[in-house]
Amino acid sequence: MVGLFGSGSEWVAISIDPFFFKVTPDPCQPIQDAIDADEREIQQLIVLLSNPGVPPIVKAQAKITLQRLERALPLLEAQLKTCRATNP
Fold first, then answer.
1. pTM of the model
2. What residue segments make up the domains of the chain, in order of their start?
């Protein structure tokens, strides 16, 4: 048997490769992704709050969100630490 290879202009024999790979997803990745997203949002809120042109109601809502994220972040970091300890 032959098949096309590379640019489609070269013919090579099809072979069976004896190497097999198993990919196991990182069970802690969703927690890390949540931490990264929260950290990005915190930085965006800090920039928003430093802008003098932002209306007071928007700043008040941003402060509430910022406080919520700052409380949640240490909890997520603790979850990640536990996850990394149980899934090295």
1. 0.69
2. 25-86
